[in-house]
Every structure is written in structure tokens, then in C-alpha cells.
Amino acid sequence: MNLSGLVRQSWAGLRVLLLFTVILGIAYPLAVTGVSQLAFGDQADGSLVTHDGEVVGSSLIGQPFDGEQWFHPRPSAAGDGYDTLASGGSNLGPESAELLATVEERRAAVAEANGVDPADVPPDAVTASGSGLDPHISPAYAGIQVDRVARARGLDPADVRALVDEHTQGRVLGFLGGERVNVLELNLALEERGGS
Amino acid sequence: MSATAAGLLQIVLLLVLLAVAFRPLGDHIARVFTSTRHLAVERAFYRIVRVDPEADQRWSTYLLSVLGFSAVSVLLLYAILRLQDLLPLSLGFDGMAPDLAFNTATSFVANTNWQSYAGESTLGYTAQMAGLTVQNFLSAAVGLAVAIALIRGLTRRRTDRLGNFWVDLTRAVVRVLLPIAFLFALVLVAGGVVQNLSEPHDVTTLGGAVQSLIGGPVASQEAIKLLGTNGGGFFNANSAHPFENANALTNLLEIFLLLVIPVALCRTYGVLVKDKRQGYAVLAAMAVLWGAALVAVTAAEVNHSGTVPQAAGASLEGKEVRFDVWASALFANSTTGTSTGAVNSMHASYTGAGGGMVMLNMMLGEVSPGGVGSGLYGMVVLAILAVFLAGLMVGRTPEYLGKKIGRYEISLVALYILAMPFALLIGAAIASSFDTTRASLLNEGPQGLSEILYAFASGANNNGSAFAGLSANTEYYNTALGLAMLIGRFTTMVLVLALAGALARQRPTPVTAGTLPTHRPLFVGLHSVTVIIVAGLTFFPALALGPIAVALA
Lengths: 196, 553
Hints:
- The complex is a heterodimer.
- Helices cover 48% and strands 8% of the residues of chain A.
- Chain A is mainly alpha-helical.
- The N and C termini of chain A lie far apart (79 Å).
- Chain B is built from 19 helices and six strands.
- By secondary structure, chain B is mainly α.
- Chain B starts with a helix and ends with a helix.
- Chains A and B meet through helix 1, strand 2, helix 3, strand 3 and helix 6 of A and helix 1, helix 2, helix 3, helix 5 and helix 6 of B.
């Protein structure tokens, strides 16, 4: 071990590092970008969703929806809610008094807004996701919103329920992950169906 | 299908994928580091950077190469982060502050990928690609090289030469990491992970709100983030972010990627020591630890005990609907059992027992199955300790793979085992002692202590995940965690290479009736128990005040 040895090795290391930076830091990501854009352009660009010819977001990224006529997403801890420049969860712990109060408030609010018993409000409706951008809700949470949305839009609840069923995705391959409803896609389908 | 059946099936699928990859990948890695032939592109590489690929290095020279290379890596990354505003595609972000740039540079070079910043609001694309993606590859390659050097120490006899670091590094990248990462980056894009160079721009959402449409070269970083057991997210939400982990299938592939090299290295180990049973024995010890922890984490999350999970009806705070509880627990256990630290759900909001278990995974020293290279050398060091303990019981000079474990060797092992707890406990003790450092806590009481313990466990073990309530972007945490990461990564590498040098000098002793076999279930048991006892004795008092207190609340 000696200083001159370390200097000599560091100098060699710098040459290796610079060449690797060109290969791994520039050529590799650009090559992946090029191939992805050619082969999987839609996904590579963020699975964009359009409405009336305008891009309204990504089917993978949740959006805020307020108002009676929409299906509502989960609570979000990303910025003021679904802020893509501030993704993340609440990080509050299992014994947090603050989180407990928030959960109870959400349960009461969701129950009242949808006219259901507080005990029927599912867990995903009262908890914020890890990303704050969760595009999905559980079929149960979509289910309790059907009557409210149908009333607000002047639609037959059975039609809206059918729409929810159509947009309910099972587990991937039958066993991976959870059952879910994509809120943006469901609301888009509603909007295209019409109603007030 | 019930949630339980589905959850079990996805574990089965993961194990099948790992089993399929085990032999071919393990054998391939063994060939990569024993082949005497250089690929044409490698020869060109060596010519350009002017290193002699035929030079066989002493352990001390190998070490100087590791340290010199890592030192310039920290410096270059630090410079890129500080000056990123001068680079193209900076998205208008300023250079990082000095303490944050130090923390981030050491973090990515030490294969930790702790992040005191949020990617989407801090870093431009050039810094992500030319700075962070590069170290995602190289830090993993360094870990792999050191593990191979230790195996050479065990297999070579009466020599002071351990191989050539530059050749090992280059081959690790060119023949192992780059091809697999390239392939899986494309697979991830096909699944929905983004890969573009568009700058963020606002769109009006369907509900009339304004949302920024983000993008970036994500998949190319995501693949090596997992394959190299790095774990640093392109975005703040890491693999919980839909653009990093789009659905339950990409989720399973990501878990597979972060486990596959540490697991397959057991095969490589068996092939290189010319006794495959030795590799299976190490794998079995890793699997016992990983499996037991998986049962504990999953049971805790599914049963959702604790005030808030009970009030909500499930442990879903910080978890994504598309993954649900089972796939979140599987990811959490695997990312903390390897030194990855990517997260698909927020560990801070796990139940007391679930969060405590993932913390304990790290405190075991990242050996179940551990990081790329570091998992294997960590496990071999602990096997040597287990052999030594067994030797004490029967009063016989212990041997491992025919190499005597004498005073010098066991002293290196003891120092290795002390380095990580030193960095962890001292850093955490200072952090919990002052009002200014406690001001960073989000939660109070035991959960607050857990935030601090988790941060230093994550740093000292080069994991990088967080109980992210802690506001770690302060001068103290950036500096202290940066130092913990360096100690956890590089003092251990110094000791491993010194150990490799000492073992390589020996002539192997022949196997006799008195030799303790290290491939039988009895030794696997002793090996696993040694891991648990070392961690238990070291960390039980701290765990009792943090996560255990939360779990019992």
C-alpha cells in the first residue's frame, strides 16, 4: 500500500470511468430509447390517453377528480394530490395519531358522499398509495360510487354498474397483484357515454 | 381465486423463474471470470484506457484499484451533480448543494442508492443517465469483482495473486450486466415503463385540473437499478411509481431481477470451488433467511395489526392497488434481503412487525441473499465465522474449503462483522441525541427512533430504502449517512480482499475424518443461526426500543 500506487490506480480508474460513462451513460440509454420508441412507442411515451383529440394524461398515472359526476380516486399524498412532480406516500406509521384521524375523516366523508354505511367503505378509499399517483381503485370502492355517479349524470345505475364491470381488471394472469378499476379510463368511458 | 392462493402462486412463479435462471446464469458468470480469452471489444477497451489485461495483481494492488476507481467515481459523480445545470437536458434544475451531492455521489458509488432528494424535482436527464445510470452498473460490477477475488483466494494455492480488477470490472459489465439490463429494459418498456427524452409539460386532465406530464430515460435505469441491486429510483416514489413499475407483471419481473444475480452467484461459487454442494449450502442458508422473513412480513401485512391498519381495514397506506398486499410484501422482503432498497410500497407505513422485519433483513448484513457480489462475500465471511465457532466447540483448528482459519484470518472476519454495526449504531446514536437531528423526524416515539435506525441500517448496509418520513436532506444526515455508506461498503471490501490475499497464500490442508463438512444441512443450520445470532446480539436492544415497541403498542 502506498500513495503513488493509489494515484497510479486512480489515474487508470479515471480513464476506465470516462470510457464507461460514454458507453453506459450515453450510448446505452440512447440505444434503449431508440429501440423502445420504434418497437413500443406508446408505452415509451407514457401510455397517453386522449379525449376529443387532446391528451388528457396517462392511463398509468392517477388524476384528481372532484365532483359528483366522477368516480373518485384514492387519497393521494403526492403534493396537493396527484402531483406528478412530487410523487410519494404519507410515510406515517401504523400508530400515527395524525394518520388515524385522517383515516376516520376520510371514512366519514366517503360514506356521506356516496350515501353508504361507513363500515362499507373499503380500505383503499381511506388510505393514500405509495406513489400518490395510483391510477386504480378496488372494485369495491368503484361499486359504492355507482349510485352517486348515476344520479349526478342522470343515468341508469345498472348501466353505470355495467360500465364498472367492463372496466374491472382481474389479477394479471389470474394471480398477480390485485383486482382493480382504472379511474381515468372509467371516467373517460362515462364521459363518452354522455349524460349531463 | 382467493388472495392467499394468488399470493402463494406468485411466490411460486418467482421461485420457478429463479430456478430456471440459476444454472445457466451461474455457469455463465463462472466462465466469464475464468476465461483466458478477451472479446475483441474488450481488447479495444483495454487499449483505449491503456491497462494491461494480463497483469495478475496482488491483493493490495487489487484493493488499490478498487479504491482508486471508486474514489474517482465519487469525484466525477459529485462534479456532475454539482454542475448539472450546465449539462444538456437539465430541465432547468440547479446543481445540487454540496452536502446533498456528497451524499448522493457516495450513495450511488457504494451501491446503496439512498436518496435524500426527489428525482423528479431535482435531477435533469443527463445527470440521471451519465451520472447515476453509470454508477448503477459500475458499483454492482465492483461488488461482483470483489466476490470473485475472494473465491480466487479460496481456490488458489501458494500465490500472492488474485486476478486483474480492470478485467473483472470490464467483464462484469460487458458480459453480464449490460446485456441483461438492455434486454430487460426493453421488456419493462413493453410493460409500460417509460423511456423518452421529453421534457415535462402541463396537460389539462379530464376532470379539468392541470397535471404535469413527466417522462425520462426511466427503463434503461430501472433495469440496472434492480439487476445491480442498486435501488435508486428515477422518481421519488421509486418502484411504487407507475412509470417505474407499471403493473403486477413488471412488478414480478423487477423482484426477479433484483434476486437473480445474488442467487445465481451461489452456482458460480460452487462451480469455481469445484464442489457445487458448497454453493447449494450457501444458497440454502440464504433461502432459509429469505423464506422465514417472507413469512413474517407477509403475515404481518395480511393480518394488519396496529391502530391505523385496523381502522382502515387493511395495511394499504403506502401500497398500490395494482400490487395489493402480497406482492408488496414480497417486494419489500426481497429488496431488503438483497441490498437493493428499491421499494414498491412505503415501508414506513407497514405494520410494526412488518416494518421491523424488513429492517432486521438489512441488519443481518445483507446476506439473504444480499447484493450483487456483496451478498456472496458477506455469506462466505459468516461461513468462516461459523466454522470457527464449530472449531472452538471441538477444540480443533478450523478450516474452510481446505484453508486454515488462523488468528489473522479470524481477526479480519471479526473486523468485517464489526464495521457495519459501528457505522449503524454510532450514526443512529448521534442522530437520536440532539434536538436538531431529531427535528427531522415525521413520527414521534418508537416510530421516530425506527426512522433513524432504519436510515442508518439502510446506509451502513448499502441498502438505500427508507422509512421516508425522515427529512434526511440536512447537513448532518447527508454527511453522516454518506460516511456510514462508505464505511459499510469499503472497509468491508478492504477486509475481504485482505482475507482473500491471506487465503491464497496457503497450501490447502487435506480433508480428514475430523474435517467439518460445510455442505451438509447441519452446517446450513449453523451458518443461518450464526447470521441471526450476530445480528441479534448486536441490534436487539435498539430494535426493542424501535419497531418491537411499535409492534407491541
